[in-house]
Write a structure and sequence with these properties.
Layout: H1 2-22, H2 26-30, H3 34-48, H4 51-54, H5 63-78, H6 85-111, H7 113-122, H8 128-148, H9 152-173
């Protein structure tokens, strides 16, 4: 959890410094609107609905899902058992805010959606399939930012997805008696 807090602080610091040097108005991009939050939350729910597909017993037999299933299995073994409620909340919220401010709020404005999404994917090195999946998700988050003009939409989408994915991971990794 400390690592996430430090990483998020570093990403936010880089974004703030870069934004200040380049004259990017991050404060205006962060202002939420109810519509942007609703659209983002709906997109996050939609993406999270795919989790049972990736973790289905037969997923390892499908080429498109095989690498994602391996990444998920690794997370389930390495990260899942250590997740408590506090860790889930910190990981979900801190990563969503810091990554969206940097990748959509700064990088996307500077280098475009494709490059920002590719770099975002590379920040998630759980195998080539997961890097490609994360880059695709990053592109979707970039489109949300472009369409709404607010970082609230991609932050909400990213946060809702992370929260639901981490809760799902925690539930799959811990026997029922350990979830309390």
């Amino acid at each position: 959890m400390r690592l996430e807090l430090v990483a998020s602080a570093v990403l936010l610091g880089v974004a703030a410094l870069w934004g200040a040097v380049r004259g990017l108005d991050l404060a205006a991009a962060v202002r939420p609107s109810l519509a942007a939050l609703a659209v983002g939350a709906a997109c996050g729910l939609g993406l999270a609905a795919s989790l049972p597909l990736v973790t289905a017993p037969w997923a390892h037999r499908m080429l498109l899902l095989r690498g994602l299933r391996r990444a998920w299995d690794s997370l389930e073994t390495d990260l899942g058992p250590s997740l408590g409620v506090r860790e889930v909340l910190v990981l979900a919220l801190c990563s969503a805010i810091s990554e969206e401010v940097l990748f959509r709020g700064v990088l996307q404005r500077e280098v475009g959606i494709v490059a920002a999404s590719a770099i975002f994917g590379l920040l998630h090195p759980l195998g080539i399939a997961y890097v490609l999946w994360a880059a695709g998700a990053g592109a979707g988050l970039g489109v949300l930012f472009t369409v709404t003009g607010s970082l609230a939409a991609p932050v909400a989408a990213h946060g809702v997805y992370n929260l639901l994915a981490l809760v799902y991971l925690r539930r799959r990794s811990n026997p029922p008696e350990e979830r309390l």
